[in-house]
Amino acid sequence: MNTPVLCVQDLDIRYRLPGGRWLQAVSQASFSVAAGQVVGLVGESGCGKSSVVRAIVGLQRPAAGQIQFDGDDVWQASRKTWQGRIASRIGVVFQDPTSSLNPRMTIRELLTDPMRIHGAGSKADRSARAAELMDLVRLPVKALGQLPRELSGGQRQRVAIARAVALRPALLVADEPTSALDVSIRNQLLNLLLELREELGLAMLVISHDITAVTYLADAINVMYLGRIVESGSATAVHDHFEHPYTATLLSARPTLADAGQGTAEVAPARPSDTVDEQAAGCPFVPRCWRSVPECSAAFPPDASPQPGHVVHCLRPLPAQQPVSAPGPGADSEERNGDHANSS
To answer: What is the CATH number of domain 4-225?
Structure first.
């Protein structure tokens, strides 16, 4: 594999709560993204994915750990290094283009603004680049004079992507790039991101709750639950040969035509992450896991997978290639806590 463009190591992120307490949003998260590689970070809302994005792009200082971009420490870099070697080379697509695009600026102004801020080219150069970007994301050049509200949701997201690559970044961070879009538009945007990876040689970090979409895009996937990365590996390993019960839960929640009107597999609802002063030492998925045993609460499990490059933090991992389903919270105690005959 190529040298990592982005390397996140043992990342901790905390938020202060009223009463002098702290919320642990991310714990000991580690992953990397190489040049030309697409890496996914998936999990339910509130698991800490967007906190990781904020730390990478300089909006949230980590409590511990290190984030390196092209060899530079993001949070130890001088202002000159940050502006010249980091900020201009990381493009970001935020969750909601409706709120992330200034409604008073035309599409041309939105696309040229990053270039103006970083002093890239003359006004004529920036205008020409804006037209190139519209072609790159498959939008008509005539839309440059329009305001964001005059475009559809899918078109606004294309503008957000175009703005993110305006400065020819080495890394594109896409936070829920297809949320709130219908299936056909979502698929078009996924294909667009793949095309941009090929055309621009981008490294990509894609954040999403939609494991199916990420599997389509990514070379590697990290599954996060309540701030912990519980399973990681190639997209094929995680999607087709998953072993962590939470990954099974994510996959079981995928909507399919066969599931129409039938709902999805039931598991216990998520709970808020523990505060630092009361943080549980064990696996965060224990309250929802149908395979948990008392030892699961003692310490965060080490890697249990025998497959190289496939990391599974679980004391009782599922046999590989299990059906994508999960017992509900009403499963009897023998099924929840005893050894299954086929899991030994």
So the answer is: 3.40.50.300
